[in-house]
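Hi support team,

I'm filing this because I wasn't sure whether my run with zinc ion finished correctly. The job status page said complete, but I'd like someone to confirm that the output block is well-formed before I use it downstream. Pasting the exact inputs I used:
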Amino acid sequence: MFTVNAYAAPSATGGLVPTTIERRDVGDHDVLIEIKYAGICHSDIHTVRGDWGPQTYPLAPGHEIAGIVTGIGAAVTKHAVGDRVGVGCMVNSCGECANCQAGEEQYCLAGNTGTYGAVDRDGTITQGGYSTHVVVAENFVVTIPDGLGLDVAAPLLCAGITTYSPLHHWGAGPGKKVAVVGLGGLGHMAVKIAHAMGAEVTVLSQSLKKLEDGLELGADFFHATSDPATFELLAGSFDLIINTVSAAIDINAYLRLLTLDGALVNVGAPAEPLPVQVFSLIMGRRSFAGSAIGGIRETQEMLNFCAEHGIGAEIEVIPAEKINDAYERVLASDVRYRFVIDAATL
Ligand code: NAP
Ligand code: ZN
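And here is everything the job wrote out:
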């Protein structure tokens, strides 16, 4: 075991503070990463504040990790010292169940091991990327292609893959009309990726404040959901809607925007339920689905796709002492469009 600097929450209330955490020694199949940047995901905030259930504290969040390999175990073949690498939302899975075998480790039937706040194989609680170093099994470490800066790549490890996976799965591409609800961390990546896939992209945001940004990110259309006319104008028009909103919204109003056989995929994960009226689905053979991050193979595919298309996140790099301010700004929908912690300041 060795000790590294980190920012962690001592409890569900009161914010994050500088501290140290323990990392395990590098095992045969492990990679030691010097973290350079860690993105702030709304899931970090939900988790720290107990929105999704009780946690073990202190808790160092962070599952958008980009850094450099500084050590490898004796049996490691996938990565070498000096490699530019990333770690996302999971650091292990059973490897044997049907879903793991299919490369969908995020849906491991035994439960994947989350990057933070999860019980690791050795019984310890995992600690995330708001820290200077992390030790991760090589199979859960992906390669960040040359040409993608580590700072703009960090958010791809969660926000990027969480939007790429359903866009890919539900066939976003030329001739498809895709709407993205919520222009935050996930939403802005959804716009960039769906646009690069060739789909026609519409942003549905609470107001028109982010209109110019939305169009610059690649959206073709932008509407305010605070205007009831939006829901009349767009009724029955989208093949695919990706809902990234972190709070409960009237999901039926959005389901009615789907065309025949359209699908609304929820990636936003509010603590509250989203009650569906069956008639919103029946009248149009519509689907309401969910999607969690993506598998490791698909995460690498997404990184390669982003490098090929010159896609990184729009970021605001902050020193660690600004983490609590950044949380407040994310909660106020005042993020443009991902906060990224400079790990050198931890
Ligand atoms: P974020 O940066 O805060 O973005 C969420 C956006 O939703 C906001 O920028 C805002 O966009 C909109 N919004 C917020 N509150 C709203 C409200 N009350 N009504 C309507 N719209 C509202 O958050 P994020 O990091 O993108 O994460 C979004 C959600 O996805 C979180 O719940 C997170 O936990 C979840 N998530 C899920 C997965 C997964 O695997 N499924 C992975 C990562 C994150 P506008 O200002 O444009 O309206
Ligand atoms: Zn996340």
